[in-house]
Amino acid sequence: MTHNITLIPGDGIGPEVTNSAKSVIEASGVKVNWDIVEAGAAVIDKYGTPLPESVLESIKKNKVALKGPVTTPVGSGFRSINVALRKKLNLYANIRPVKTYKGVPSRYEDVNLIIVRENTEDLYAGIEHMVSSDIAESIKVISKKASTRIVEFAFDLAKKQNREKVTAVHKANIMKLSDGLFLKCARDVAKNNKDINFEDVIVDAMSMKLVLNPKDFDVLVMPNLYGDILSDMAAGLVGGLGFLPGANIGKDAAVFEPAHGSAPDIAGEGKANPTAAILTAALMLKYIGEIEAANKIEKAIEKVLEDKKCVTGDLGGKASTLEFTEAVIREM
Known about the structure:
With 332 residues, the chain is of the alpha/beta class. It has 2 domains: 1-96 and 241-332, Isopropylmalate Dehydrogenase; 107-237, Isopropylmalate Dehydrogenase, CATH 3.40.718.10. The protein has helices spanning 14-27, 44-47, 53-62, 81-88, 144-160, 178-191, 203-212, 224-237, 275-287, 291-307, 321-331, and strands at 2-8, 31-36, 64-67, 93-99, 112-118, 128-132, 135-138, 165-170, 197-202, 219-222, 247-249, 254-256. Strands 2-1-3-12-11-4-5-10-8-9 form a 10-stranded mixed beta sheet, with helices on both faces. 45% of the residues are buried.
């Protein structure tokens, strides 16, 4: 079977790490017809927008996309392409598995949790305006529909992966209406899933608990902003964003992308660590049913990281992006 998949190389180190992921997928034996499309700051002059309509059309047609990181301006310029993709395609669930790997410097061992983040609303709905020249206002949007949907997704994921607990993260002690609604929805969903343990934790306490003992947690589910912050914090527990795959999943489409940024300072130098992009490729293969190939890739990554004979500079090695990729393919 040949899979039709959209490939968005991105910018910065995006083309390098997505090429690594593409090479590993092809070496796994999975057959893919790649539909390569462009998005990002580099295409604004060509298309007049960082997100051409052709990108959305390709994803809608193929249902699955592998995407590299894209640079987002800070404080001005266009809004995040990632946010735009999630909203336009209704990719309501963001997933970031957080796992320790032998050979990757970390203060912890045996961390293996998943952060499930609601992807379409909260403060990231982008509803903001200037009240006056001195006051800006952003509106936090939390709905019953989106909250229930994301918590149900988290429980379904826990069951599929044989996990024991779902933790809802919130700030309902202060935002009693918005986060209060999210918490109520979570508790209602939990009543229908009594085979999975459930708890809720206030977001600031969650930050402390994750640092104290991340092994206490399994699947965490939360509104958009908390998920953005805590997933990056959790990455710090296991070596950094360079080891976190990511997925944005909706009813009709899914976009898979590594959690890290575009690192334009090292773009084109062959220094980028492609681990997160390759793990993202494995996550995507599981989604499309290529479980055996995905497991093969994950085991190869674990072996290369543990051996440390052919790793990139961020891990103390001298290997280039290509050399690391070739080492993973050899292990497969």
